[in-house]
Amino acid sequence: MTFKDMARDCLLAAIFCLLITMLDTGASNAAENPRVFTLNELIEMALKTSPEIKMAEQDILAAKSEYKEAKGGQLPQLDMVGATGPAEDAQFPTVNQAGQIVSHDGGTWDIGIFGRLDVYITQPIYSFGKISKRKDAAALGVEASKDARTAQRNKVVLEVKQLYYAYLIAQEGKHAAGDAIGYINDAARRIQRLIELKSPNVQQSDLYRVEAYQGEVKAFAAKARSGAKVAYAALKAAIGLPKDEEFSLKETELPQSTTQLAPVEIYIQRALSNRPELLAVKKGVAAKEKLAEAAKADLYPTIFAVAVGSVAGAPGRQQWDNTYWPDQFNHAYGGFYAGAQWHFDLGIGTGKLDKARAEYQKMLNQQDYARRNIPVEVVKDYQDAVEQGEASHDYGQAVVGARKWIVASFSNFDLGIGTARDMFDAIDRYGKNQGNYLEALYNYNLALANLDYAIGEMSDKR
Asked: Which helix (H) or strand (E) holds 47?
């Protein structure tokens, strides 16, 4: 091997090692850096993996199958019956010149075989709505199943938003606790410094108060961390992410923009027009009405036409052609006729009709219940959004004022014209205002999500 060949092999080995290192580094980076999702991406993943939506899809397929079955009742029905079995061989007897009947049959056990095929094609002509009403009901069932799928989709979107906002407020709660701890520690350092200087403005009890505040804030921070872990786990399960894969959110704070709401009457009208649960109930009412009409039609006859055909053959038997005594073993014929079928029973049909009418009336009551309560739900969510929007705005201003109060109290304390109590009062008020602000902001975003759900127009944003 020449020096040139050795150098080339070393270079190739070095390149190969470099590529392996890069791949390993990329894999480790991918493992260390979790995927980052926006709210829209979380919703999209949840919709793709939701078992509830997949079940709703199967309900649609089942409803379509029922429609196909009902529609098939209007088409011709084909019945075929085939049979085969033993048949005694037989031939026509003859009369000899002496006038005696001479049989040509074999012995008593001279058995052959025969085969027969009968075909019936039945076409309903008029059934007083037995078939058409059930077909219409099945078609409405398909549409109702689609509305149920939309309702389930909206429910998944709402659940993702709830978990998303819960995770964000828990994260912000941890940050707020960190800010409060920072202010308390800063106050403790100032107090400790003045104690060491033997200043008359501070006492040893002020440090005890610091410890009390620190314990309270640490407990709040622990609660926020626990809430964040629970919301994270629930959100991860909702989007169908594998257990060994982590993620983070692109947004780190709750949305703060205030949505300009239209008058509540507009939202009520949109809910009555678009709420999928109400649309499904409406179609269910129409379907039950069709089924009641079909049950009534069952009390009347069904008019139909039939085409028949039959062929049979027995090799060991001679065919007998006679109009009055058809040969069951050797024949071939076809024809058609019209008829009517009318079934009578002692109350079974009327009982089914009463049941169908009761189910129809029950569905009407359910529709009336939804029409009455959906507007109430819309008004509640609307007022919650208005109230929490105003509260978040007011508490936001209060947080700014409390922060200014902290700065002023710290400055006054350093100048000797303020007390430690002033600092603690400012810190305490800041913590409460910050907590109220985050809670109001969380409730506001949640109220908007609930309002979207109430009107049946779940947007992927906000």
From this structure: helix 39-49
Return d(Cα 11, Cα 3) in angstroms, integer: 12
Cα→Cα distances 72→33, 280, 298, 300, Å:
57, 25, 18, 20
Q: How many CB atoms lie within 10 A of CB 217?
A: 21
Query: Which of 125, 126, 129 has its CA nearest to residue 305?
Result: 125
Token couple for 169: 């407020």
5 has pLDDT over 80: no
* Angle 305-310-316 from CA coordinates, rounded to 5°: 170
pTM: 0.80
DSSP classification of residue 317: B
Quick check: 419 pLDDT over 90? no
d(C-alpha 461, C-alpha 41), whole Å: 10
As given in the structure block, the two tokens for residue 412 are 């006054």
Question: What six digits make up the tokens of 170?
Answer: 């828990």
Q: What is the pLDDT of residues 186-240, one digit of tens each?
A: 888 888 888 888 878 788 888 888 888 888 888 888 888 898 899 999 999 999 9
Query: Is pLDDT above 70 for 106?
Result: no
CB 210 within 8 A of CB 180: no
Amino acid at 333: Y
Cα atoms in the Cβ-side hemisphere of radius 13 Å centred on 156: 27
DSSP conformational letter for 90: B
* Closest CA relative to residue 454, chosen from 280, 282, 284, 268: 268
Q: What is the edge-to-edge ordering of all strands in the sheet holding 302-313?
A: 77-88, 111-126, 302-313, 331-341
pLDDT digit string, tens, across residues 341-351? 898 887 888 99
Q: Kindly state the percentage of the chain with pLDDT values over 90.
A: 58
- Residue 129 has, within 13 A of its CA and on its CB side, a CA count of 13
CA angle 330, 331, 335 (to 5 degrees): 160
- What 3-state class would DSSP assign to 83? strand
Q: Which two tokens stand for residue 83?
A: 């049979």
Nearest residue to 237 (alpha-carbon basis) of 50, 40, 39:
50
Does position 21 have pLDDT exceeding 80, yes or no?
no
Q: Write the burial class of residue 136 (CB in 10 Å: 0-12 exposed, 13-18 middle, 19+ buried).
A: buried
Q: Which residues contact 343 (CB under 8 A, 6 or more apart)?
A: 298, 349
